[in-house]
## 1
Amino acid sequence: SGNYYNHGEIRKKELEQSCCLLGIPACDVTVIDHRDLPDNPAVEWDRQLLASFVLQHIEANNINLVVTFDAGGVSGHANHIALYTALSSFEILLLFLCIGCRVFVLESVNLLRKYLSVLDVPISCLLPGDALFILTEEETEQAKRAMRCHRSQLLWFRHLYLLFSRYMVINSLRML
């Protein structure tokens, strides 16, 4: 629920605002508030439990495509990495296939490439991958507005992220 700094309720509202701006209705957003899955990078999440929550959401909403983090978690955040680990096990991927759902992971890049912004486009185009998304200027502005909804998390370095991160412009995905 994003309650690491006791901002869980604030962050839930910020998430709903961000999703609304992106055209995702609140009824399609599920916030998990479970004692075994705290927003805390020092706590190792139960991967089976996490996978079961994701599978329930997929089945309840008839989802056929999931995009998650890769093994690097994009920022190295332990909770992001746990999500990848939970969804990349053979048994879970087999379940995804059985229900007709494909899983892609957002590729982590090194720090230099992460902050090259649009200058990373040629590099990403040359590297192998399963999918490459290059946002239009309008889509980039929409993504930035959605990120700004998360006011409680907008520390100084996240403002730099909004300005310079390649993830605001380009995203490379790999199929699991």
## 2
Amino acid sequence: QSVIRVSFHDRRLQYSEQQQLEGWRWSRPGDRILDIDIPLSVGILEPQIHPTLLNTVEFLWDPCRRTSVFVQVHCISTEFTLRKNGGEKGVPFRLQIDTFGTGGKGDPPEHLHSASCLVKVFKPKGADRKQKTDREKVEKQPPPEREKFQPSYESTVLTEVG
């Protein structure tokens, strides 16, 4: 069983996460922050979407079969910044997946693995603009400095959580 959750990366926002999520729920009644895109996902069983946990989804999967899960984040990074006059930087989110084995009778599930990545979510035009300016910023760096930047990937790469 795996549980995917979107939370705040910034420590100061983590302290007020519940209030931030309640404010979001109030301003967007009936919407969710995180969903599983079932048609695009492969090999997942029993996807569960909790009505009260807007930023969490879970599912079962067979580790012996090819599995991929596509998720949709329905809020943008600037929804949690103080409104100015446009051009807000946006807050980074942490997308984390925790995987558990099945516990024995009466035993809690065994934690097997956790991995996460940082994501920023923008509207399509904003995302295109951000990618362009980031790419230009990296290209202007001298070659030794360029190596410090993470390369682009076609799909999301998660890093093991220690």
## 3
Amino acid sequence: MDDRDANSGKVDINGYPIWYEKFGTGSKPVLLIPGGIGTGRTDYWEQLEGDDALDTNRFTLIAVESPGWGRSAPPARRFDINMYNRDAECYYQLMQHLGYEKFSVIAWSDGAKGALTLAIKYSDSVNAMVLSGASICGSKEAVRFLNTIVKVDSWGPGRLDSYLR
């Protein structure tokens, strides 16, 4: 799949230019929410292009970049107690803007936290969810791990290159 296979755009929601890419024409819309600093193409490459790609005749895949990250910035992401509430509101409004009253969600890591909030606030709209890697409490081990991934100079070349693309 390349750029010609996706419809993309930005929608202004709550002061953020929310970037999205839409793949396929299937009758089942699925919102793909990446982890922190991720994009649909970096975090969902396998589902979009890899050996395990989802059937875009069956599903319409909407890959979003979260408020304040990537092409959904500026403004920069605000880290505060309402961060995931803002994320959920942006995801919901994006899907409404695109004409999807009901949809499913695949999310991981930081995106999974916003997805959980989305499902709580808008349970009538979320059909199903698949979440992975959602840490919901801070332990010393979690903080130590987060500190290692923040320093991109310690990433391997393949991982860094995928984000730089």
## 4
Amino acid sequence: GLLLAAFSASVCSLLAITVDRYLSLYNALTYHSERTLGFTCAMVLLLWLLCLGVGLLPLLGWNCLRDQSACSILRPVTKDNAAVLAVTFLLLFALMMQLYLQICKIAFRHAQQIAVQHQFIATAQATSTRKGLSTLSLILGTFALCWIPFAIYSLVADSSYPVVYTYSLALPATCNSLINPIIYAFRNPDIQKSLWLACCGCVPSTFSSRPRTSSDV
């Protein structure tokens, strides 16, 4: 149950971040007035309650205690229920991919508008847009490499498969939540500023003089 809750929270948190990033670009004028601190805390609480509910499913009957042959690699979840979870994950991943594609389109359009308004040179605009696209591709690609093998393995394997295979595929999925903050820390200037302030109490001059672009979102 704890494993299901943790995995669900990891996937749903990334989905929530993706939706939030999309809305911040799609509704840029009203985003800050609508996404208040109270609203954000309520959404996080609702998300965790939902994930805890998923973690309770084995106690509510999603188990193979009465029929050991029906167990999946996620013991004691049955093979059918594990397949439902895996398919749900793949659908969520497809949704995130679609949202990221829309984010790239919006960010590219915003970069063009900023370039026209401020008369930036074309190379600066192209560099900013490429950085934004590379960051999104890196996050999405890392998520896919960590999670999709485990999801596909859950569809084809059962409890008779060696446990070492399950752990070897579940470990990257677990570490994905550790990798994402590292990616953000190296790619997002706001997080870099916070790290500089936390570590040495100062911010390098290169951050203060750097204009904010669509690639920072």
